[in-house]
Structure formats: C-alpha cells, structure tokens
Specification:
The chain has a six-stranded mixed beta sheet with strand order 8-7-9-6-5-10, with helices on both faces. A five-stranded parallel beta sheet has the order 3-2-1-4-11, sandwiched between helices. It has two domains: 18-121 and 274-325, Rossmann fold (3-Layer(aba) Sandwich); 123-273, Isopropylmalate Dehydrogenase. Helices cover 42% and strands 17% of the residues. The chain is built from twelve helices and eleven strands. The longest helix has 24 residues, at 287-310. By secondary structure, it is α/β, with parallel strands linked by helices. The radius of gyration is 19 Å and the shape is globular.
C-alpha cells in the first residue's frame, strides 16, 4: 500500500503566518513561469516583481487568464537584460529571493555567478531537491543534482553544509546525512568512497557542523533499515537519512528523476550559497512543486533576514524553527 504526500503541504502551511517575501522573477513570459509566480503570490508566500519585456509578460498573462495587475513589472528589453536587472534587485536587497522564469538557466546563472555584480556568497552555490516521497516517512533532501557537475572534496564540504543549513530551516534539528556511493566500504578505486570518509572525519573535527554524517553508504542502506541490517551496518544514519549527498550531478539527477517518475515522488528545489535563495523552475514541475519551491525560498529568506538581524549564521537563526513531526 502506497503512502501519501505530506511534505509540501507542511512546507506551504508554515508560510501562512509569515510575511510574504519580495522576489525578483526573471523573464516570466510563458504560462508555467508566470502562473507559478502568481500562484505563490495568491498563497501569500511571495510578492513577485516581474522582470522582463512588459508587452510579452502582459501577452502571456492575457493568453492564459492570469491577472498580473497587482504586481510590479520592471520593463526590460530581453531575457539577458531581465537576468541582469533581477540580480541587481537582489543585490540591493530590494528583493530577498530570485526566481527563474522562461529564460534558459545558464543565462540567469551567468549573471548570478558574475564576480562583482553577481550574487556570490561566502560558500559555493549548490542545489538541493526537497523530495516528497510517498513511501518515505519524512522529508528527503538530495544534493547536488543541478549545479555542480563533478564536485571536488572541497566543493562537497559546502554542498553538505548548505544542505544541513536548509534542513535546519525546514525544522530538522539534527539531520542525518548519508554520503552516497556504490558500496559501503572505503575503496581506493572508487573516489566517492574516499570523499565520503573524508567528509565524515571533517564533521568529526567540526569542519562541517549541524548534522550527523555517515558514509560511504549505498542508496539502499541509506534509506532502508532492513537493507542496512542485512549488511550488518551499524550507523545512526543508515536507513533513516534526511539528506542524500550524491557523488556528482549525473548520479543526483538520475536519482531524483527516478524517484519522481517511478516512485511518484514530487520534487521542489532551491539553490543555496548565494546572497539570496534561488528557485530554478522547470516546465515539468507540477503546480504544487512550484509552490513548494517558493515556500522553501521564503523560509530561507526569512532565515537570512533573522541571521542578519541577530548576527548569526543561517543555521543559528534557524535553530528555533519548529521541529518537523
């Protein structure tokens, strides 16, 4: 008997009592991107600032019956100019989040990652999928399946810390982090097992904070207590992971899509490590997934705001977030 979806409703509900977050939406010139922004605004999650050619935005709105009259439109010439202006709105703190419209991801991320004018933070940027898997009893985070193609060990330190900080924001006080590979033993010929061992030791030494790490772990041992027991793996993480850290983008992308298409999972997503949280929408995303991505973005933006006000890290600001049931 299959389980039920519950994660996204929980995330969206958490935003109901919080102030809507101003978000720059870059080039929302098709139905999917424009409807995603409007739906999130109606849910009082975001206050969208629509950045793009006014005529195209209004044409898309009229064609699909969307009312954009309540929202500010920043009129620019094309997709490239929209990316530049949307990033600028975030740099000046006029907007606390950035959302991709119908422009190509590389056009937006080119402006985001520019030295001097972009949104680079102190850490490497990374993407986290927030998965609602019917047969898994809690939120499952997968990273990085969208930004870092072949991350180095140094990159993975930031990837893991970004995911842990997000887990704190989502109310997971001490996330269990499984560093994935194909096997459970350190094997010199499989570099991901070496990275996993190093990351776990770095966590022991305080170089990664806020979570419980273990690895290398194969996927089955990370999410199935039964599989871990059969292989005699004694671990506080095995079988009950909150975060899955994949070896590279290819593995992560395949894993997330397999869960989505074969296990009826739904996937929201967020880019972390920049000055503001970033949502990279996809035409394949369901309306609920787009709304959940906006909810995650809003929660991270509120955590950033609290951190700045209190002089804390984002993890420190999120420490008082309600624990997930």
């Amino acid at each position: 008997m299959r389980g039920t979806h519950h994660v996204f409703e929980h995330l969206i509900a958490q935003c109901e009592t919080r102030e809507a977050v101003p978000v720059a939406v870059a080039f929302p010139c098709d139905e999917v991107s424009l409807a995603g922004a409007v739906d999130a605004a109606k849910a009082r999650i975001i206050v969208p600032v629509l950045v793009g050619p006014r005529a195209q935005i209004l044409a898309a709105a009229n064609a699909h019956g969307l009312d954009v009259s309540p929202y500010r439109i920043v009129d620019v010439e094309d997709a490239e100019a929209a990316a530049v202006q949307a990033v600028a709105l975030c740099r000046t703190a006029e907007c606390a989040g950035l959302m991709k419209g119908s422009l190509h991801t590389d056009v937006l991320m080119h402006e985001v990652t520019k030295a001097g004018t972009g949104l680079r933070g102190q850490r490497r940027m990374s993407h986290v999928f927030v998965m609602d898997v019917p047969d898994y009893p809690k939120t499952l985070l997968i990273t990085d399946a969208a930004v870092n193609i072949y991350p180095s060990l140094e990159d993975k330190v930031d990837i893991v810390q970004n995911a842990i900080d997000l887990a704190h924001v989502l109310g997971i006080a001490q996330p269990k982090v499984a560093i994935l590979s194909a096997v459970e033993t350190v094997t010199p010929k499989i570099i991901s097992t070496i990275d996993a061992a190093a990351l776990c030791k770095m966590a022991d030494r305080g170089q990664i904070q806020g979570g419980i790490l273990d690895g290398p772990l194969a996927f089955d041992n990370a999410v199935s207590i039964k599989a871990a027991a059969i292989k005699h793996i004694v671990s506080p993480v095995a079988g009950q992971a909150d975060i899955l850290v994949v070896p590279d983008l290819e593995a992560g992308n395949m894993l997330a899509k397999q869960l989505e298409y074969l296990a009826e999972a739904e996937a929201a997503g967020i880019v972390l490590g920049a000055r503001v949280p970033i949502v990279l929408t996809s035409r394949a995303d369901s309306a609920k997934a787009r709304l959940a991505s906006c909810a995650v973005m809003a929660m991270v933006a509120h955590a950033h705001r609290s951190a700045k006000a209190g002089g804390l890290s984002m993890a420190g600001a999120a420490a008082t977030a309600p624990a997930q049931g």
